Amino acid sequence: MMDAFYDALFALNLLYNFALEPLFLLFFARLLGVAYLNPYSITVFALLPVRLLWLLAGPSVHFTDGVLDQTYQYLILLENLHFTLRTAVAGLLVFYLSRDDVLGRFVDRFHFQPLSGERLRLCALLFFGVFILAFVVTASWSFGLLNWLMSPRTGYQLHRSGAGPFYAIAVSMIAVSYILALLAANSQKRIIVTWLVFLPFVFLLGSKGYLVLYTVTAFAFMLIYGFKIRISTVAAAGLVMSTAVLLNFGSADLVDIFLYFDYYSNSAYFVRAYQNGLTDLFYGEISSTEIIGAVPRALWPGKPFVYGATLLNEIFYPGMAAAGHTPAFGGPILAYADFGVAGVVLHGLTDWSYLGTVMMAFMLLTRLRDRGPAFVRTHHFYIFLTLMMLAPGYLNFFQFPLNLGVMLFVSVTLTACAVFPRTRFIRFA
């Protein structure tokens, strides 16, 4: 009888984890008076099938008791606590902003020279050129350009060492180019064509996740321009993308495939080790050493391989960080590893990254609602906002203060495109 009771509690624990964010998006949409399926919510809905694989598939094969493993359930409970706190803070923020949009009105006053569609396309071409240069350098560094073109996945996994800064530039620049090209598009057909043109180049990055994210972004832009999309269509697309991800493993054995989804499993291993006294908390060492990642190894040859999140990785996989393998952890494990439950609570209340995303979504959606897509696609600030929200992989590998340098470069280039005299090249673009 007690076993059935605990099983029911564990099921509710997982259900709450899966449903909380969609419910918050419903509150968000109702408060703003916008459609439930919008450019912000679609990025969550389309990836729900993948999230299910993380939550259910991986743990089901990594633990003897599957998803009912007590350590795994404790980790999910920690994540639920983290989700609840950050969602509550975000809800209060949205409620306050919706009552008096002071920030939005202030930003709207600074409407610089609008960017026309042809100038957006010119900027997209310029950033695409930077992507090509950075990609060629990355591919040629140790693997060889032809080898990378023949096997992008191998290049991505084993041959980025030493060329990491160039790969990071390539990822960010093609993302900027893609968003600007989509902003320049004003029809469903052009959005689809843009997506198809970029997809082969995104494939060269070697990561399955980027193919999914670029597809989701195309859907988001259809919503920006007012095209109707059914939730069932998004769900079907999510299932197709999830199936494509599974087929990409090249194995018919589901156990082998599910073993790949070890994000939560890795985190649960640390929780179990800590609870059994096999390791201790890091007491701030993880968060305080993340800044080391901002320094390129080319500038600091003696840069340590183990810092930040890789400190956790080193416990279970010694030497893997030096070999170029990055950690994969699910849930608020970094906050927990630093300060235990107190760290989870503190991070949940001060998750600036999540709060920033919510605030950007609020500003973008309210302007789409009140001023329309033409205003958003020509106003410099909302172009930057769209980049921050929807550009797949933009700034992923750049920590403070390098991310500010990339944003400054993008800002200066966009400004130059806006004020540059009209030429035949611009007309051609």
- The residue ranges in which pLDDT falls below 50 over 5 or more consecutive positions are 424-429
| DSSP summary, beta strand count | 0
The main β sheet shows up as: none
Oligomeric composition of the shown chains: single chain
Total of helices: 22
Description:
- It contains 22 helices and no strands.
- With 429 residues, the chain is an all-alpha fold.
- Helix 9 packs across helix 20 (380-390) and helix 18 (352-370) packs across helix 20.
- The protein is globular.
- The termini are far apart.
Concise description?
The protein is mostly helical and 429 residues long. It contains 22 helices and no strands. It has helices at residues 2-32, 41-45, 48-62, 70-99, 102-108, 117-141, 145-150, 152-158, 164-184, 188-203, 208-224, 231-247, 254-258, 263-275, 285-289, 310-316, 333-349, 352-370, 373-378, 380-390, 402-419, 424-428.
Give keywords.
mainly alpha; single chain; 429 residues; globular
Task: Please outline the helices and strands.
Elements: H1 2-32, H2 41-45, H3 48-62, H4 70-99, H5 102-108, H6 117-141, H7 145-150, H8 152-158, H9 164-184, H10 188-203, H11 208-224, H12 231-247, H13 254-258, H14 263-275, H15 285-289, H16 310-316, H17 333-349, H18 352-370, H19 373-378, H20 380-390, H21 402-419, H22 424-428
Helix pairs in contact: 1-4, 4-14, 4-17, 4-18, 6-9, 6-21, 9-10, 9-20, 10-11, 11-12, 18-20
